[in-house]
Amino acid sequence: MTGIDLPYAYGGATGSGILKQTPEDFAVEEILGFAPSGEGEHVFLDVEKTGANTDDVAVRIAEFAGVTRMSVSYAGLKDRHARTRQWFSVHLPGKLDPDWQALNSPELRVLEACRHNRKLKKGTLKGNRFHLRIRRLEADRALLEQRLRQIARDGAPNYFGPQRFGHGGQNIDKAKALFDGSLATRNRHLRGIYLSAARSHIFNLILAERVRRQNWNRALEGDAFTFPDSHSFFCGALTPEILERVAAFQIHPSGPLWGTGELPTRSEARELEAAVAEQEAELCRGLERNNVEMARRALRINPGEFGWELGGNGEDGEQLLVSFTLPAGAYATTALREALVFDAAFD
Fold this sequence. Notes:
This protein is about 25% helix and about 30% strand. The protein is α+β, with helices and mostly antiparallel strands and about 350 residues long. The chain folds into three domains: about 15-25 and about 125-150 and about 305-345, Pseudouridine synthase (2-Layer Sandwich); about 35-115, TruD, catalytic domain (Pseudouridine synthase, 2-Layer Sandwich); about 155-300, Pseudouridine synthase (2-Layer Sandwich), CATH 3.30.2340. Strands 1, 2, 3, 4, 5, 6, 7, 14, 15 and 16 form a ten-stranded mixed β-sheet that branches. Strands 10-9-11-12 form a four-stranded antiparallel β-sheet, with helices on one face. A two-stranded antiparallel ribbon has the order 8-13. The protein is globular. The two termini are about 15 Å apart.
């Protein structure tokens, strides 16, 4: 993962298995967090897609509706090699809805269409619900279930997954080339990918250091705390109330998504963040020059509705079925890396 060793919180994986042998093995459903109003200029589409790229689906929706690509939006990208339920919005002011069922194909189905008064913006999801099947499982059953219970109880480090960094971590190299002037691009989408990779890399480094120091899951003096369903944060003294809220997962210690502005942390937390970030000073200064605004991300993820079932022993060997919810921006494979090493059938 970007060439750095991301330490485990619980001592390492307990076994291995194959993930995504078929797209149906990785099912994800967006949790919108609000109900469309039923009226307005925007049509919200609940789409089930299998083996299809999010951007490609957006293009197909735009062509079908007779609008520009910019008139179609979505809250977040979803894995192509998966079965996903995802929301799209289409700007259709003063126009009647087309027959959305005519858009259906073997890889795409429109499950619901309803009007809303605002477009769907990136990052507005409450979270995602996952149903995963891991095949050819090789693990000590008792040890694996113990680790799964530990993740359900105590959470896991909220690392950005390798998808964020591209094959072999090349998006970090692209970001450095963008910052030193050896790469020029007017493609805003690619530019955003490289900037996001740089921020994610710095965050992972800081989180990795806190995992090594075994304080990723508890409050440090000077920490900034985030809320489970919000991008906002606050700083406060480590009062008994704050410590109780951290222990109850009502608030989380956070790390920086680097950009312009001062670190809001103080004392021990600020010293750690500044020292680790300085290891990638080139990326930090590049993000600042590109006017990316400083933000915060929770250091840990606490999977909701966590459940699993062990079975199988047929052609695909022993299998693990696992389901849980995560907040938007968290990675399912990151939550489970504390339990298993995955041999993905698709990159």
